[in-house]
Write a structure and sequence with these properties.
The chain is mainly beta. The chain has a 14-stranded mixed β-sheet. The longest helix has 6 residues. The model has no long low-confidence stretch (mean pLDDT about 95).
């Protein structure tokens, strides 16, 4: 059970995000607003009882929007029910610019000390472009994960609920 708000300060680019997560055992619902230097957006995510993404909705202040649906088993479609074959196999979503979506695989995985690979539906909410990416997470201890994607690597600090509280150089919890 989780019913919590959190705020992040984006460092590069400068932004502020206010996010609220409600997880009740049946599903998880996430609502968030981000204000950046040249954009404003609101996103909603719904996860099923297994922590698999089912719906993604992003609305920008300029009126552009993106809505994607997942079947929880790696199949994706757009708001016209057209299949998105390029996202096949993705269970999680990674939305730029928020650290919240880094928590999705952290929440639903039974961790060992071995690296775990995930296929992600990566969305740039500033352009509404999306693609499939491969990411690797390694649990280092109860509050740190190594995150790797392509030629990028970061040490993520998480709190007791698995929410990212420090993403060096990109995001930190706002006070």
């Amino acid at each position: 059970m989780l019913n919590r708000s959190i705020r992040w300060q984006g460092l590069d680019p400068a932004s502020i995000e206010h996010c609220h997560v409600i997880a009740n055992g049946r599903d998880t619902r996430i609502r968030s607003a981000i204000i950046g230097p040249d954009f404003g957006l609101f996103y909603r995510l719904k996860l099923d009882e297994r922590g698999h993404v089912r719906t993604v909705k992003i609305e920008r202040a300029d009126g552009r929007s993106l809505e994607l649906f997942a079947d929880g088993a790696g199949g994706w479609s757009d708001d016209r029910a057209e299949p998105l074959d390029g996202l096949r196999g993705c269970i999680d979503v990674d939305i730029w610019p928020t650290p919240l979506t880094n928590s999705l695989p952290i929440w639903r995985t039974q961790w060992t000390d071995q690296p775990t690979r995930f296929a992600m539906a990566w969305i740039d909410a500033t352009t509404m472009e999306f693609k499939r990416t491969e990411q690797i997470y390694t649990k280092l201890d109860d509050s740190h994960f190594r995150f790797q994607s392509a030629d990028f690597e970061a040490l993520l600090a998480v709190d007791e609920t698995g929410l990212v509280v420090d993403y060096p150089g990109l995001f930190t919890v706002a006070t």
